């Protein structure tokens, strides 16, 4: 990892780029996650990026013990790095002159799709072979900030602009349609479905909504934690969020309020943003300040 300085506001990508500062210092913590006796328990914390600098945007491989994430070098440029949570080994997937963000395993599990940020301000969506190799560009006519796959043929995008827009993109047609505006960065395919969730920030109370595969309509799921946009879904349909210090979970349609999840004794985190749960539902990765 090699590269020139860049400030990424909000702990991640954004529309305004500065080449004068480093990305903020963040670490990724990995926990065991268990749901028993009606509540979540997190144990066995491991700082998988115990170093100075920006490590963020973790994504679990759906079948293998890998976590992919964006990691910045001393000059502020990011590559995609992978961590094996069974062996504890870390290695680079990319080592380029570009800046890569938001690694995501594609539905066919053959690629890691990611944002490729250029020095000229462009933010393309590309994909790297999952075992290493050169990038293929998927979208280069939009300034893509974040993305989620519904299936091999359909992407959902957070596109930077005035205003930022939420779009559905067809791989075959290379066409997109605007679904909404003023959304958050957290886009997810809801486990067990082909619906896509997003955070609507158009009013003072932010809400979690979903785009239904069946007819394309938008349905409200519930309210976020106040002022928070990062979330993850568990395989059982629960949502986990953070207020920046603690974790909370909520079950759409069943829970009334957000329920706190206690960290292991003695652990204190601050500035929690991104979080993600693996496909088995027994691991959670949490991004926090150094």
Strand ordering within the main sheet: 2-1-24-23
Label the structural class.
mainly beta
As a percent range, the share of strand residues is: over 45%
* CATH class annotation: Mainly Beta
Q: CATH superfamily, please?
A: TolB, C-terminal domain
Quaternary state of this entry equals: single chain
Radius of gyration over C-alpha positions, nearest whole angstrom? 18 Å
How does this structure look, described?
- By secondary structure, this protein is mostly beta strands.
- It has one domain: TolB, C-terminal domain (Neuraminidase, 6 Propeller), CATH 2.120.10.
- Helices cover 0% and strands 47% of the residues.
- It contains no helices and 24 strands.
- A 4-stranded antiparallel sheet has the order 2-1-24-23, with no helix packed on it. Strands 3-4-5-6 form a 4-stranded antiparallel sheet, with no helix packed on it. Strands 7-8-9-10 form a 4-stranded antiparallel sheet, with no helix packed on it.
- 40% of the residues are buried.
